[in-house]
Write a structure and sequence with these properties.
alpha/beta; Metallo-beta-lactamase, Chain A; 7-stranded mixed β-sheet; 22% strand; 7 helices; 6-stranded mixed β-sheet
């Protein structure tokens, strides 16, 4: 089953709309990762990308920023039979409401934990903007980041310790939009040092950083944007 980016501020599909935010669907696990900033646009993109909303069984939310939680209500209105994995840093009032709108809510803390199948959360990392990321322990190990506020290279190192394996493929927002060349290059060097071999940087990574990742990783750089599909 392929994985599909459903919401992004970059475009890789002529039929989908872009807005600031991020969401993707993991087909093998029937899991929606974040929900972008706007439910109407998320639903439009889901339809155009031939994803069946009723197939979604799980929703993983990384952090509380509007551009990652804006589509939650729109999804749950059409499919309330979903288990939510929510960071404990979300508003207690929002968590309480979501419990009444969904099948089940699992609260994720700072402690790493196994979710189901090959999926793990890193646990909530960082204090300024607490955020969890998703680890996929497959043959090609993956880390999916919403924004990577904690530092994408540091998140990778945390993930490695959790599954006791190198993370080979890193996907999502790398939070380098306002970073200078020196910081971007440091991040790239650290990821290579950690044996990351493939990247799909998008959302808040920033144009400059994305070009530097493409230059460094070559054929192992995957272009992001709404409509991007990857295995």
């Amino acid at each position: 089953m392929t994985n599909t980016i459903l919401f992004d501020n970059y475009k890789n599909s002529s039929t989908c709309q872009t807005l600031w935010g991020f969401s993707l669907y993991l087909g093998r696990y029937n899991l929606l990762f974040d929900t972008g900033s706007n439910g109407r646009v998320l639903l439009q993109n889901i339809k155009k990308l031939n994803i069946n909303i009723q197939d979604i069984k799980y929703l993983f939310i990384t952090h509380s920023h509007w551009d990652h939680i804006g589509g939650i209500d729109s999804i749950l209105e059409l499919n309330p039979d979903i288990t939510l994995y929510l960071p404990s840093s979300l508003s207690k009032h929002l968590i309480k409401d979501l419990k009444t709108l969904s099948k089940d809510v699992v609260i994720c803390s700072k402690k790493p934990q196994h979710l189901f199948g090959n999926l793990y959360t890193t646990g909530i990392l960082g204090d300024e903007m607490p955020e969890q990321s998703l680890i996929i322990d497959e043959e090609e190990t993956k880390l999916i980041s919403g924004c990577g506020h904690y530092g994408i290279h540091k998140i990778v190192n945390v993930a490695k310790k959790i599954i006791n394996k190198d993370i080979k493929f890193v996907i999502g927002g790398f939070h380098l939009l306002r970073s200078d060349n020196k910081m971007i290059q440091h991040t790239i060097d650290e990821l290579i040092k950690s044996d990351v071999s493939k990247v799909l940087p998008t959302h808040c990574t920033g144009d400059k950083a994305i070009k530097m990742f493409e230059h460094t990783f070559g054929k192992n750089y995957i272009k992001g944007g709404v409509g991007t599909r990857f295995i």
